[in-house]
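Same chain as my last thread, 255 residues:
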Amino acid sequence: MLIAITRAVSPTLAECQLTHLPREPIDVAKAMADHASYEAALRAAGASVVHAPPEPALPDAVFVEDTTLVLDEVAVMTRPGAETRRAEVTSMADVVAAYRPLRWIEAPGTLDGGDVMVVDRTIYVGSSARSNRDAIGQLEQIVDPYDYRVTPVPLNGCLHLKSAVTQIGPQLLLINDRWVRSGCFAPLETLTVAPEEPGAANALWISGSVIYPAHYPQTAARLERAGVRVMPVPAAEVAKAEGGVTCCSVVFEAR
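reply #2:
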């Protein structure tokens, strides 16, 4: 069974953490409606949606991806780089523990799940302002018994690794190569976002389709020309909070 853990949009979303974007007004009611459409797309892709407890006082709590990395063998509970986000992890751990044994990133390590991209047995981790070398070392020790290889990746100009690159097929990545070098992922193939849409590299590959923000039509057209099945969803409000479609769920096979 394919599981997708999500969490409701907080009414305080407009107070979210921001690093690379200027603060804009966020229509929280629209964000909530968009999130319902996103969950419908997850279900249409075959996932069973599991709701983590709401966290109305935590503005970024909808971005559940940052709290955990769920592998086939174990789940790693993170320690987010923004101190105000660390309170999100405990309630997520209660949900994830029903599916996997838990391990934890400890201080002084900091790791956001948005910096982590798993392709087969390689775990790429963005060396960002939110994820540090200490946490990458801890992650290496946690996953070593399961035969994963952890590969740090340098970034510039964006919040997370998955702001710059995501997987959209078995051997295909969607990438903004101005924020991360495509050579870091060789021999995987890459498809570059439309130059006019620098934020368009975040896509959620699920069940052979890609859940994708509707506000990036030029890159969506590139995906379709490449034979990728696109499931568009409204996501412009969470984008103002430096969020994307991978950020709002944690997707894995139940074991």
